Amino acid sequence: MSGKGGVAEVLRVFLRLGLTSFGGPAAHVATMREEVVRRRAWLTDAAFLDLVGVASAIPGPTSTEIALHVGHRRAGWPGFAAAGAGFVLPAVALVLVAAWAYVAFGSRPEAAAVLAGMAPVVVAIVGNAAEHYSAVTAARQNEMTLALEISVGSSAQIALMVAPALVLLSYAFGTPMSLVFDAFEITAIGLSVLAIALVSLDGESNWLEGLQLLGIYVVLALAFYIVPG
User: Fold this and answer.
1) What is the mean pLDDT of residues 38-46?
2) For residue 51, with 0-12 CB atoms within 10 Å meaning exposed, 13-18 middle and 19 or more buried, which class applies?
3) Which of 102, 146, 149, 218 could cross-link to 138 by cystine, CB 3.0-4.6 Å?
């Protein structure tokens, strides 16, 4: 474990984590462990697990409490404040901007359409944040088989469990859904499967293929927003 560090270093690390960490506490804790234990060696695995145990036993958001503990252990009370500010303030700023935009423009018809299109995209990203992080971590460690299994398994989980469950639950809310897909939706699914097959065929990947997959995701999101129905 490395020794004490500076407040600026703590602020820089947790500001980056605050800007790039999505999902719930499980995803945040995994991201912090990767950063402060494996990459920077600020703490040992045993010490980090002790912090997780203590934070889980007291009220409040676990990931934020762990950030505060790590900041204090790294740079004392100034580090405590720097870690908390860096980890929390990005989310606070984002929520304030979103709240202002909603109050200022939320009543407009076009704003309602934009929000309706953004909602499923945000839910898909945030809801699977832990799985996304695990897949990216596995890919960074050159464990491509594990990364693909996580990614494809997540999609299969949605198709085989979440989608049928939503159809069944929809009747309880008075808005029946079905598993009947139109031509556009079937085309989107087919293109997604084809893209995954082409990327995984050789068992290798690189940043360009990852960028292409992100591009496909953006194109499909925009298409579902633009196409009527």
Assistant:
1) 89
2) buried
3) 146
pTM for the whole structure: 0.59
> In this structure, what token pair is assigned to residue 13?
């690390």
Distance, in Å, from the CA atom of 39 to the CA atom of 45, rounded to the nearest integer, reads 12
Instruction: For 13-39, write each residue's pLDDT tens digit.
Output: 999 998 887 766 777 888 888 889 888
The residue type of 200 is: S
Average pLDDT, the chain: 82
| CA-closest candidate to residue 23, choices 154, 149, 205, 147 | 154
Q: Which position has the token pair 């800007």?
A: 19
Write the DSSP string, the chain: ------HHHHHHHHHHHHHH--SSHHHHHHHHIIIIIIIS-SS-HHHHHHHHHHHHHSSS-HHHHHHHHHHHHHHHHHHHHHHHHHHHHHHHHHHHHHHHHHHHHTTSHHHHHHHHHHHHHHHHHHHTHHHHHHHHHHHHTT-HHHHHHHHHHHHHHIIIIIHHHHHHHHGGGT----S---HHHHHHHHHHHHHHHHHHTTS---HHHHHHHHHHHHHHHHHHHHS--
Q: Which amino acid is at 138?
A: A
> Does residue 58 carry a pLDDT above 70?
yes
Q: Would the pLDDT of 56 be above 90?
A: no
Computed on alpha carbons and rounded to an integer, the radius of gyration of the chain in Å comes to 21
Measured between alpha carbons, how far is residue 125 from residues 119, 121, 181, 183 in Å?
Answer: 10, 6, 22, 25
